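agent> fetching stored inputs for the zinc ion docking request
agent> found them:
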Amino acid sequence: MTDQPTPQMNVESFNLDHRTVAAPYLRIADRQELPGGDVLTKFDVRFTQPNTEHLDSEAVHSLEHMMAEHMRNHSGDVLDVSPMGCRTGFYVLLVGDHGVDGFAPVLEATLRDLLAAEEVPAANEIQCGWGAHHTLEGAKTAARAFLDARSQWSQVTAG
Ligand code: ZN
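agent> prediction call returned; pasting tokens
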């Protein structure tokens, strides 16, 4: 642990000082213009405070399945929903140029679907690499907490 500035890294989030953020929040982690002119937007969807809290592994896994499936009912631009290895949130990759204000309603609708769901989609050995490693209730608890902080999503840093 050091307070020395780190050299510029290749990965956007490695240049983010995780001590300064105030989860839960939603921010653009990256925006890439492809050679053909199309744009990709990557969101950092942070559920828990870095280095303070993290989600249970089963909850992360079920949130991944449920957001990946339900979000596609609200947007045709979803390319990928992936958990962070630190288990504090997810990356959502969208085709097109999206802002936080445009994506927030999609994320909110997705999580409301999740709260109403009666099962985790594809939680079985045919469709998943660890079909038993899921918790519907754990996913709902995390989604509910994130939704409860809806008014704070656009505030990324404390103060
Ligand atoms: Zn899975």
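agent> quick read of the result: Residues 61, 65, 128-129 surround zinc ion (CB under 6 Å).
agent> awaiting further instructions
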